[in-house]
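hiii, so i know i said id send this last week but things got crazy w the move. better late than never?? heres the sequnce for the chain we talked about at the cafe, plus the structure i predicted for it. fair warning i was half asleep when i ran it
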Amino acid sequence: MIDITAFALKSADEQAVRDFLAADEAMQQFVYALPGIVRRTIAQDASGGPSWAVITLWASGEDADRAARAAEQSAIAQAFNDFIDPTSVRSKRYQPLDK
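okay and structure toks below
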């Protein structure tokens, strides 16, 4: 299962971005400790714009669902989400065809 979440930060000033990337590093460690994780990466708009995306590959949809429930209870995930403008979040789940 592939999850793609696109969003903008509440603040794009340099310090806020550095703090966000530190929160993302903690989030990366949190996610890689979950069962079913295959890969997670974060990307910024290629032009340096305000758009960001997190792409996460899971072994199954059930693993993705369990991870979402775990994130709801996680202080690490909350700290990561605190940097994100909630009105900007767009998430989509995709089924890979290359099994």
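btw Helices lie at 14-32, 61-72, 75-81. thought thatd interest u
miss u guys!!
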